[in-house]
């Protein structure tokens, strides 16, 4: 079975034989390769291409047309820094034809990763109409509605008769990203309505587009953040959303496949920040590059941890009198950090899904603090009983249990409040990462623990 997995890519069943495809190319059996390769799904083609070495990729460019390569280039998921070397191996005319045959939004996504010199060269070699569309999209920021929209959509004037509209749809369909949603515009190209293909088909022939369209149009502004657009499309269950400028001119559309990519990208980004890393998807980085990306966070956390160490050192006298206090440091700091991280995950999730508004922020913080208090009381009582049974020191047990309760309550509150504050300041709340919250809670929990122990020292000795 292991040998089969070396040669085949399997997802519930055998999909394609990589070694056979490689052999066809190396043996120059072009017809056999084309029959096998072009019969695969474009996702499978992109997977094969991504896993191939430079020699095989070069042969693929030699035996496939730019139109055929463009089909699976739409599915590529390379790291940003991999695109420049890839296009270095391609003939400039060939590369420009590949990009020209891709949907404009996907072509722009790739061109945003290329050097300015390459982009200028590609645009010069492209068809003028395609180059004009791509140039317009390149001006928008990557993470905005304008950066992910496509200009390949179907639109009809409101004054178009239904009997003529189907003919117009048929003319525009070959180049459109989707034909199921049709947008109605006025003479000034302003978006005024929307209708589905079904609406058009069942409409009376003597009707006009303005008679069958819906005037209630939900759209995105070209400058909207892509995460906000994804949220809106999820709320309305859209398969496509129009993008307009500040004067409601229809500029493009965003389709569901692009939004799925955005949601995956945003989720990965939030997960990375919660873990205190920035390379969760970096599959091909060297160990040195991986360490270089993570070191800034780790160095920052090291200095923050020094505060905890200094704090504990300042209570050296307390520890020297009751050395057993040191045994419970990991429990109190660990539980405080754990409860804070749980609360952090809940808050970041609620913020990212738009469940939190100005009125509910206080309630969220209060609920999380209450949850932390109840959890702290339960864990504290259990810890008190364990210490009494094991060490027969009820005063010590009370100090440790009380400190754990307070630390978990404050830790949970911090995990909820810090993301809310960051969101208020227009800072990504995911920056309040798990390691950051844990370190902050370490400082607070140690201050509570040793402060309480010092206060009750006379009862301990």
Looking at CATH, the homologous superfamily of the largest domain is: SLC41 divalent cation transporters, integral membrane domain
| CATH topology value of the largest domain | Tetracycline Repressor, domain 2
Largest sheet: 3 strands, mixed
Question: Over the alpha carbons, how many angstroms does the gyration radius reach?
Answer: 30 Å
CATH architecture of the largest domain: Orthogonal Bundle
- The overall number of domains is 3
User: Overall 3D geometry?
Assistant: elongated
**Mean pLDDT across all amino acids:** 84
CATH class of the largest domain: Mainly Alpha
Strand content: 5-15%
Determine the number of helices (DSSP H or I, runs of at least 4 residues).
24
> In what order do the strands lie side by side in the largest sheet?
3-4-5
Short description:
The protein is mostly helical and 461 residues long. It contains 24 helices and 8 strands.
Structure notes:
With 461 residues, this protein is mainly alpha-helical. The chain folds into 3 domains: 2-143, MgtE N-terminal fold, CATH 1.25.60; 155-255, CBS-domain (Roll); 287-460, Tetracycline Repressor, domain 2 (Orthogonal Bundle), CATH 1.10.357. It has helices at 2-7, 18-26, 30-38, 42-50, 54-63, 66-73, 83-88, 92-100, 104-111, 116-125, 128-138, 145-148, 162-172, 197-202, 209-212, 226-236, 256-275, 287-314, 316-321, 329-352, 361-391, 394-424, 434-455, 457-460; strands spanning 8-11, 13-17, 155-157, 181-185, 191-196, 220-221, 240-244, 250-255. Helix 20 packs parallel to helix 22 (394-424). The chain has a 3-stranded mixed sheet with strand order 3-4-5. It has a 3-stranded mixed sheet with strand order 6-7-8. A two-stranded antiparallel sheet has the order 1-2. The termini are far apart. Residues 1-14 have low confidence and may be disordered. The longest helix is centred in the C-terminal third of the chain and has 31 residues, at 361-391. The chain has 24 helices and 8 strands. Helices cover 64% and strands 8% of the residues.
